[in-house]
From TrEMBL, chain A:
GO molecular-function term, one example from the UniProt record: allantoinase activity
Cofactor(s), by name: Zn(2+)
Enzyme class, first EC level, given as a word: hydrolase
EC numbers: 3.5.2.3
GO cellular component annotations of the record: cytoplasm
Function: Catalyzes the reversible cyclization of carbamoyl aspartate to dihydroorotate.
Protein name, entry field: Dihydroorotase
InterPro entries: DHOase, DHOase/Allantoinase_Hydrolase, DHOase_cat, Dihydroorotase_CS, Metal-dep_hydrolase_composite, Metal_Hydrolase
Family as reported in the entry's similarity comment: Belongs to the metallo-dependent hydrolases superfamily. DHOase family. Class I DHOase subfamily.
Catalytic residues of the enzyme: 312
Protein residues bound to Zn(2+) 2: 160, 187, 239
Assigned keywords, A-Z: Hydrolase, Metal-binding, Pyrimidine biosynthesis, Zinc
Gene designation: pyrC
Cofactor note: Binds 2 Zn(2+) ions per subunit.
Amino acid sequence: MKIENLPEYLLLKNGILIDLDKKEKREVDILIKEGKIEKISKGIEKKDKFIILDIKDCYIFPGLIDLHTHLRTPGREDEETIETGTKAAIAGGFTKICCLPNTEPPLDNESLITYLIAENKKYNYCDLYPIACATKRREGKEICDYYLLKKAGAVAISDDGAAISSSQVLRLVLEYSKTFDLPYFSHCEDKELAQGVINESFISYQLGLRGIPDISETIFAFRDVLIANYVKSKIHLCHISSKKTIQILRFLKENNYQFTCETAPHYFTLTEKDIKNYDTNYKVNPPLKKEEDKEEIKKALREGLIDAIASDHAPHLLAEKEQDFENAPFGIIGLETCFLLSYEELVLKGNLTIFELLEKFITNPAKILGIEINKIKENNEAEIVIFSPKEKYIYSEDKVVSKSKNTPFLNKEFSGRIKAVINKNKIFYF
Amino acid sequence: MKHLLSINDLSEKDIYKIFDYASQFEEVLKRPIPVVPSLRGKTILTLFYEPSTRTQTSFTLAGKRLSCDVINFSFSTSSILKGESLLDTVKNILKMKVDGIIVRHSVAGVPHFLAHHLEKENIFVINAGDGINEHPTQALLDAYTIYKKFKDFNNLKILIIGDIKHSRVAHSDILIFKKLGCKVFVSCPYSFLPVEFEKMDVVYLPDFREKLSDFDCVIALRVQKERHNFSYLSSIREYHLLYGIKKEDLNKMKKNALLMHPGPVNWEVELSYEVLKDERCVILDQVFNGVAIRMAIIFLLFQEKL
Ligand SMILES: [Zn+2]
Ligand SMILES: [Zn+2]
């Protein structure tokens, strides 16, 4: 990965602009002057000062938004830092990311939110939107100071990793957060039921690993949406992975319940069958499920029932992952492969058009967070992804930008490659 | 070097080869000096992260009868640092220049983990029980005990009673009996059945007593409360009433049937103490056969004949 300051004039030649409003592809040249889009049109004439970047056959679209990144800061900077995490985000085409509050200590007070935002400005690779804790110490008991958290820069609240088990506390969380228009990001998991390490099925029996029943997700998704709608608060469901959950969500949507939800690429590209030889790079929470769950997720993405695709980027040290399956932590890194996997599985296999895919990565996440998209328009700051859909790309170990390398997709050959990202007056090449 | 991590690692041919060697080693065990020099100079290590005097002793004896040096390591569960110490274990094993390791651990997949990290070395790994996953040598000795009696597995009907979901013995037993052509039945409360148990291709009997006269072999499993976070049982009393084999049950069993238990028995739970006197009860034969079977496995792994 190479990072350079933008030249005074940069001319992108022959790119294919993906216009999200008109839903059309257009061949254009884009002239960027001092980080700002000066002109978009066909056949912009070259002048002496211009640095030319020929991007024939490449797609151009605005930076992607990730709703679910674990930056591990503060507390676990050995696994990821703001510097390495935001770089990994850029490498994956994301220019705006949300970081979740399950850190050590957790993000349950405004000073930590202030710290994260200030720290991110030092590197200034991408925009960082912290999500604060819903309850103090993520214990599911006392609610946090949402006003102060929001003022410091938090865009949502969540106790990710731990679901609030008390329905009464959840009601309070949702009512209080409504006052400040902060969406609640729900990690749907009935912990009492979910005492295992992989999906409970014949495969968990064959491997002798304790199983997590798929309904543990469904039950809490159902409950959380009901409570949120009862008090008319904004709820977003994280990393949906099971067919049963989708069936229930479909029912709720048909009955006009309000909610948004996301899934992560591993839930529509992998299944529990991939967990061979106790490889802990397949240990994720919620766990990988069956073929039918995978298909249902793709169907829900096509239908628009699932609004967004998030990375659920969860870096862990090799020393932690390289141990027995029970004791290894849940989670895989995902920022760098999130879009590539989605493009390959969803667009190339005919599930979504490129426009629909970018809705899941840009338009919908922005709506969920209530933030503006920086469109590719004249006079806007350049925040552009240059993606080559025809190139092959092997994601080998030396290419990993994240500080951790825990991914089952190492050495996978992708169809499509992120060539460069332009953001904050910088250009990042890969 | 090949390992023995799962019954799935063995072909039917391998299993009969193990039986064949086991019967030869049985002869050795009956000699006044029950030792052969086959593996002189070799060293094996038993690594028991979960205490089991019986299994560890059986492996130790098996190794020593083959003139192998056997070093035993036991860890009390509380004293081990979980996780990364496993890789340290691998590094230590390499420095200690042992030829084979026999491992028991409370977590499924640990023997696979060690085998994976010792892949390039000339060291075999035997799974002596990993969590709720498998216990292949127990299954082999169970099958061998049945083989000695019937000499043919085809159409034998075998009933396994107990916690099918959390028993590594049941898991390995079902795999081996099905591989050898038996019909396998299980009986237990529903809370002891794995989900999607239909895929196991076994017959579930809520009440085995109705069919007790059908079985050639009945295996009662040890109730292991320690493996559960909380009780799957209502009470020991009710379990014994419903799933314990009592003297009157023996009357319903075939005259030439076998009654087995992997041991140690919780008397008056899985079995009434009286059934021990019945000649169909072969629990102690299983213990003897266990040494012969383990000698065969260790020997064959060293000879690379599996
Ligand atoms: Zn979560
Ligand atoms: Zn998460």
